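Lab notebook page, bench 4
Experiment: in silico fold of construct C2
Operator: M.H.
Input chain length: 104 residues
Purpose: comparison with the prior construct
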Amino acid sequence: MEMQRPEASDTAGSQTTPTPPKSRIVAGERSSGAGAEKAFERAGVVVKDAVDKTREKVAEYREKGFEQVSQDVADYTRSQPVPALLMAAGVGLALGMLLRLGRR
């Protein structure tokens, strides 16, 4: 039995990975558009839910006043200290830049 040497294209270092087939859009065919429409619908539902929750929270803050807002901020800061610190630093940086621009 004679063994054959692998060709240069057969070596492990030069193997190519198969590429996925490209989607083709044919007139009258909406294969990829249907998925995009579903994604937009899901995103719309998520955004609508977020807007509804925000409206409820704002109404609650109007009703209960500043004490409720400060209590919620304190609770969030205790439960999520790193994101709260990063947000405070970002707000401070933005305010500092605005104040510096106002002095010029």
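Observations: The CA atoms of residues 86 and 92 lie 10 Å apart. Residues 35-103 form one domain.
Next step: discuss at group meeting.
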